[in-house]
Amino acid sequence: MKYTEAKEQLIQAWGNLGYSWGLNKTMAQIHALLMVAPKPLSTEEIMAELSISRGNANMNIRALLDWGIISRLSVPGERKEFFKSEKDVWALARQVAKERRKRELEPIIKVLREVNQVQTDGSEHSKEFKKVVKELKIFAEKSDALLETFIKAEESWFWNTVLKMMK
Amino acid sequence: MKYTEAKEQLIQAWGNLGYSWGLNKTMAQIHALLMVAPKPLSTEEIMAELSISRGNANMNIRALLDWGIISRLSVPGERKEFFKSEKDVWALARQVAKERRKRELEPIIKVLREVNQVQTDGSEHSKEFKKVVKELKIFAEKSDALLETFIKAEESWFWNTVLKMMK
DNA sequence: AGAAACTTTCAATAACTATTGAAAGTTACG
DNA sequence: CGTAACTTTCAATAGTTATTGAAAGTTTCT
């Protein structure tokens, strides 16, 4: 397989994966591009490589900055701004986990806690409801604690511990 | 808070969470509804509770069956079919993990393996590319192994092990 | 201050995804 | 078999999200 072809395939596949991680397709593609680029790229270069418009590039670059997984960079002597990706996959995964925890897990935990306060009126419906909510709440809180551990963990420590688990 | 209000809130919140887990909104809402229902529900009941059309209900019920997180159930003497959700949150999480592994992680691993075969032509671009692909591949494969452990794990064993990790 | 180089915004529109509901299909019972 | 009870399909449409590109905004240099 040739390099350019491989690169396109990776960007495509990364686009899909990123999408299921809560990024959007273009965001994930820009990210993939920056991951494999040996040098920081300018907006122009990103536009050209992915054949996307200026506005689209700008919006998605901003979103990636917002997620904290790429960074802006000024090259002395150049007016343009350049962007580079965090290349450490571990740091990246951690950042994504952090964002998703904030955006997804925290809201549902909040609702589960509120909804857990409901007065049971003695009906079968409300009893079943309480039971399910309680279980979900416990599960969500445990997951949250686990995610927190992951987010704060050292890479080698984490994989070693996991390795022990797997035996 | 009143029960009906609480139920609506939960279905709403679950809808959002499910969405970020790869289900779609209606799918996740039907699932939430079946989770809190003390008895299996018919298509009619689901349609009424969520105010959705027959076609929509049917399609999303099928998708949930497909994911293996609800089941069809015939009540003797009744022509109608009823549906009930797996109520064990652990089993549910495991099933979702299994599906996502199949739908998302496996395809990217396949691509990473292929793309890892690329001939490096000695250019900086292709060297950087190789390096990144290799790291991604290692990470993805480790994650896959971890997911597999999770999917096969016993609930109490899993949380105990995790608890030890967190200390 | 003016002009060039660049970035950001946003209304229009394209692309995609979800939903409806009526029609076609299936099943099961008299 | 016929028909009532139910399920499935699918073309039309509504709703949502992504993308464009030109205009407005900003920065930096002379």
Q: What are the key terms here?
A:
homodimer; 167 residues; mainly alpha; elongated; DNA-binding
Write the layout of secondary structure elements.
The structure is a homodimer of 167-residue chains.
Chain A lengths: L2 H18 L4 H12 L4 E2 H8 L3 H14 L2 E5 L6 E5 L3 H27 L8 H29 L2 H12 L1
Helix pairs in contact in A: 1-2, 2-4, 3-4, 5-6
Chain A binds a DNA duplex (30 and 30 nucleotides) through helix 4.
Task: Characterise the protein shown here.
The structure is a homodimer of 167-residue chains. Chain A is mainly α and 167 residues long. Helices cover 72% and strands 7% of the residues of chain A. In chain A, strands 1-3-2 form a 3-stranded antiparallel beta sheet. In chain A, strand 2 and strand 3 form a beta hairpin. In chain A, helix 1 packs across helix 2 and helix 3 packs across helix 4. The two termini of chain A are 37 Å apart. At the A-B interface, helix 1, helix 5, helix 6 and helix 7 of A face helix 1, helix 5, helix 6 and helix 7 of B. Chain A binds a DNA duplex (30 and 30 nucleotides) through helix 4.
Order of helices and strands of chain A: HHEHHEEHHH
Task: Please give the oligomerization state of what you see.
Answer: homodimer
Residue windows where pLDDT falls under 50 for at least 5 positions of chain A: none
**What summary fits the major beta sheet of chain A?**
3 strands, antiparallel
Count of helical regions of chain A: 7
Rounded to an integer in angstroms, the radius of gyration calculated over CA atoms of chain A is 21 Å
Spatial strand order of the main sheet of chain A: 1-3-2
| Helix content bin of chain A | over 70%
Instruction: Give the class of chain A from helix and strand content and strand pairing.
Output: mainly alpha
Mean pLDDT of chain A: 92
Number of strands of chain A: 3
**Biggest chain pair contact, residues each?**
A-B, 57 and 57 residues
Terminal-residue CA separation of chain A:
37 Å
How much of the sequence of chain A is in beta strands?
Answer: 5-15%
State the shape of chain A.
elongated
